[in-house]
Write a structure and sequence with these properties.
This protein is an alpha+beta fold and 394 residues long. It has 11 helices and 13 strands. Helix 1 crosses helix 3.
């Protein structure tokens, strides 16, 4: 029997965290190539450290002249990302940091396993397992700890950028320990918030005075009590931050990107990868399926796993787990999924309309639990599959 009373902790990091700077640049590169050609192939990796950004990986466009043109834009793309995030430090400034572009054309050996040709369907870009998850803990059907850890940092970024809190700086981390009673989130036992700030004379108490009202604003009413422990900038001064304080890499925050540890993760990172890479697109569709299962009322929570082999179009397996909360059998849900949606790489892309420049916005504050955008961003958060699921099970 599963536990009903416990504390579960998740963390988030801000858009100014070194790893998230890299995720943002990689996804902005992806967006640029998808804007040029919806079928562009991109696997862009970024490394950032003091006064330096290095971008490498593979890209591909059908038009070689266009490929050369867009390769020439990489430096400007990176600088625009750093500027928007807000870095203007002496040792990491959007205008002066050194940017090295090592991107090159995609391997023909990889392409031959992925591309459709003749009577061969387009295959998956790699082998792997991908998970999606949904739960009724929040209106967004996300686990509460990661959802609110993101919300805290997103709010602090808003007031930093609009000038309301001019002493806050881009690099920040949050961590919430959420208390569960009878299986439902009811409060926060501890709050950890570390944020970069402008002045070495600002103490931890000074920073708490700045951030506490915003934290209280985004957390549900009654979740913070007199017993809640606060740890705000617990090490003291945090003026040197971002890639100057700690090196960053694309893809190092996969648990922050997904469910905060409340659900499995297949291991693949998302940022910088075009949607032929199933470790991104299949993770998105798995979330889409799990969310629609929960939204349909079939279960209180749901995990969906998909598996793929490189060069093979159809998933090798579909697995569903509703943790004993299902109104119908997990096997029935698995069979229904196979009937109502094409889970080949191309089928996923077409259903969710993923071949669009919609990815830079996913690079911070989570790939899941966000409202679908009018231009197709976060299409995997829609619940438009509910009726089809119900019909397939009847």
């Amino acid at each position: 029997m599963s536990r009903k009373n416990y504390i579960f902790t998740s963390e988030s990091v801000s858009e100014g965290h070194p790893d998230k700077v890299c995720d943002r640049i990689s996804d902005a590169v992806l967006d640029a190539f998808l804007a040029a050609e919806p079928e562009a192939r991109v696997a862009a990796e970024t490394f950032a450290t003091t006064n330096r950004v290095v971008i490498g990986g593979e890209v591909g466009l059908s038009d070689q002249d266009a490929l050369k043109e867009y390769m020439g834009r990489i430096e400007d793309i990176a600088r625009a990302c750093i500027k928007d995030i807000g870095y203007e430090q002496d040792k990491f400034h959007h205008a002066t940091c050194e940017i090295t572009n090592l991107l090159h054309e995609q391997s023909a050996h990889i392409a031959q396993g992925v591309d459709a040709s003749g009577d061969k369907d387009e295959g998956a870009g790699d082998q792997g397992i991908m998970f999606g998850f949904a739960t009724r803990e929040t209106p967004e059907l996300m686990p509460a700890p990661i959802h609110y850890a993101h919300a805290v940092l997103r709010r602090l970024a808003e007031v930093r950028k609009n000038g309301t809190e001019p002493t806050l700086r881009p690099d920040a981390k949050s961590q919430l320990s959420v208390r569960y009673q009878d299986g439902k989130p009811v409060g926060v036992s501890s709050i950890v918030l570390s944020t970069q700030h402008a002045d070495e004379n600002q103490s931890s108490d000074d920073i708490r005075a700045i951030v506490e009202p915003y934290i209280r604003e985004v957390l549900p009413s009654g979740w913070i009590t007199d017993e809640t422990e606060w740890w705000v900038n617990p090490t003291g001064t945090f003026v040197i931050g971002g890639p100057d304080g700690d090196a960053g890499l694309t893809g190092r925050k996969i648990i922050v990107d997904t469910y905060g540890g409340a659900a499995p993760h297949g291991g693949g990172a998302f940022s910088g990868k075009d949607p032929t890479k199933v470790d991104r697109s299949a993770a998105y569709v798995a979330r889409y399926l799990a969310k629609n299962v929960v939204a349909s009322g079939m279960a209180e929570k749901c995990t969906i796993q998909l598996s793929y082999a490189i060069g093979v179009s159809k998933p090798l397996s579909i697995y569903c787990d509703t943790f004993g909360t299902g109104e119908v059998g997990d096997g029935e849900i698995e069979q229904a999924i196979g009937k109502i949606i094409d889970l080949t790489p191309r089928g996923i892309r077409e259903h969710l309309q993923l071949n669009r420049p919609i990815y830079a916005r996913t690079a911070a504050y989570g790939h899941f639990g966000r409202a679908p955008d009018a231009d197709g961003g976060f299409s995997w958060e829609k619940t438009d599959l509910v009726d089809a699921l119900k019909a397939a099970i009847q």
